[in-house]
């Protein structure tokens, strides 16, 4: 058991090694991130989870949280009674913080396996077997080989939830993007922003033909599967098609106005 003072000190010490990114509530009401840092840092993941949660059914299923960072989503997933969660990240500091968080919250007693692994390493599948559902949230735009990552993900599970910095266009394109590099985090470099259509077309090549757009903004969220029985309610996809057209139209109008005004 940790005292309040010990938790506060540990949160501070870990932040000195590498700043926290996931806003996680610990005992005694202690937060890993102060709200004064703004919405992007403080409740970005809460908003993301709120969008995804209604479509998640993982009771007694095996889960992979790839790019788990400090563990926010693994914590939320653990509340839904999965069989096991493989929480994986390439960054040693993120894993160190996640291990502390899981320990404080008592999650080390649950079926959560936390590992520092590179998905492109040959040893990955020796540690992480094929699972039922894969969560790849905030990772696609952070790898220099998005096509290779998508192929890897299709070999790890039959159902995938993806969230990434997307290129808002109806065309199957992939724009180069030099995203922000967080302090002392070399794994936070931005590379490419593929459009939703681009991601869908790539995944179809690997048999993931059933897809539903859950959010179409610059942070797009997509559910895909290779099994019809795992496909989400078609109404979910239909309702989002309207949103996609609205967003694309808005972006198009904005671009036209820029040209006119210049």
Structural class of the helix and strand makeup? alpha/beta
CATH-derived architecture = 3-Layer(aba) Sandwich
Strand residue content: 15-25%
Helical amount among residues, as a percent range? 25-40%
CATH superfamily: Vaccinia Virus protein VP39
The string of secondary-structure elements, in order, is HHHEHEHEHEHEEEHEEH
Major beta sheet, strand line-up: 3-2-1-4-5-9-8
How many domains make up the coordinates? 1
**CATH class value:** Alpha Beta
The termini sit apart by 62 Å
Layout of strands and helices, then pairs:
Blueprint: H1 4-17, H2 39-42, H3 44-52, E1 62-66, H4 72-78, E2 84-89, H5 92-105, E3 112-116, H6 124-127, E4 131-137, H7 146-154, E5 157-165, E6 174-176, E7 192-194, H8 196-204, E8 210-215, E9 219-225, H9 234-261
Parallel strand pairs: 1-2, 1-4, 2-3, 4-5
Antiparallel strand pairs: 5-9, 6-7, 8-9
Helix pairs in contact: 1-5
Descriptors for this entry?
9 strands, alpha/beta, Rossmann fold, seven-stranded mixed beta sheet, 262 residues, disordered C terminus, two-stranded antiparallel ribbon
What does this structure look like?
The structure is a single chain. This protein has 262 residues and is of the alpha/beta class. The chain has one domain (57-261): 3-Layer(aba) Sandwich (Rossmann fold), CATH 3.40.50. It contains 9 helices and 9 strands. It has helices spanning 4-17, 39-42, 44-52, 72-78, 92-105, 124-127, 146-154, 196-204, 234-261; strands spanning 62-66, 84-89, 112-116, 131-137, 157-165, 174-176, 192-194, 210-215, 219-225. Strands 3-2-1-4-5-9-8 form a 7-stranded mixed beta sheet, sandwiched between helices. Strand 2, helix 5 (92-105) and strand 3 form a beta-alpha-beta unit. Helix 1 (4-17) runs antiparallel to helix 5 (92-105). The protein is globular.
